[in-house]
Amino acid sequence: MGAAVRLISAYVNIVHDCDEVFNYWEPLHQLLYGYGKQTWEYSPLFALRSYFYLLIHMVVAGPIRVIAGEHFGKTAVFYAVRSALGVTQAVCDIYLSKALASAAGMNAAGLCWFLLTTNAGMFFASTALLPSSFTMTALTAATAASLQGHQHVVIATAAVGALLGWPFAALALLPVCLRALWLMPRRAVGLALLWAILTLTPQVAADRVFY
Fold first, then answer.
1. For 111-136, what is each residue's pLDDT tens digit?
2. Rounded CA gap, 146 and 143, in Å?
3. How far apart are CA 182 and CA 66, in angstroms?
4. Fewest CB within 10 A of the end CB: N or C in the chain?
């Protein structure tokens, strides 16, 4: 049911933010087809956006471009990427609901899943090609991991979500990270450094190539 709602969003949800078009779909189009509009953020003079965020979506977009061909390729890529984003969020919603069931009971878990699935904001954001939506998915997974006591997963998802997605959302991730630091102070610091390196190294390498 949750995946079905997210797939509906992928196919009927409009693109609400011009930032999504010009800062993410256009550069992704350029990576796929060799041409596309460039905003000032992607200019080598400023280099404010990371290409690595776009490259992880090439895992879906690249094969679909080849399979669908030139005639239907662009439309197929658009819906395939949005579908992948939506299904990923649906999986994280289920993960959070199951974690909440263990921590607070089935009633709380069922209500959480219902609200996540029917919430208008989630419907819009879950299939948006935006770093903020990427971080939202990471936050969902980190919260679920925190409830289940999987602090290593908390650190990993928080690091990837904040560093690769939207750094300003680190404030939203702060409570679960502080809990992980409280429960395992030495290991949490080590894991945070490890995941920072694992996230930033390919990101810096990709940006050196494209900029």
1. 999 999 999 999 999 999 999 999 99
2. 5
3. 48
4. N
Q: How far apart are CA 141 and CA 66, in angstroms?
A: 31
62: number of CA atoms within 13 Å, CB side?
A: 7
H or E, element range at 183 = helix 170-183
Contact 158, 138 (CB under 8 A): yes
Amino acid, res. 93: D
Side chain identity, residue 165:
G
Under 8 Å CB-to-CB from 158, ≥6 apart: which residues?
A: 138, 139, 142, 170, 173, 176, 177
**pTM for the full predicted model:** 0.92
In Å, how far from its chain's centre is CA 78?
16
Q: Quick check: 6 and 86 in contact, CB under 8 A? A: yes
Element (H, E) at 32: helix 26-33
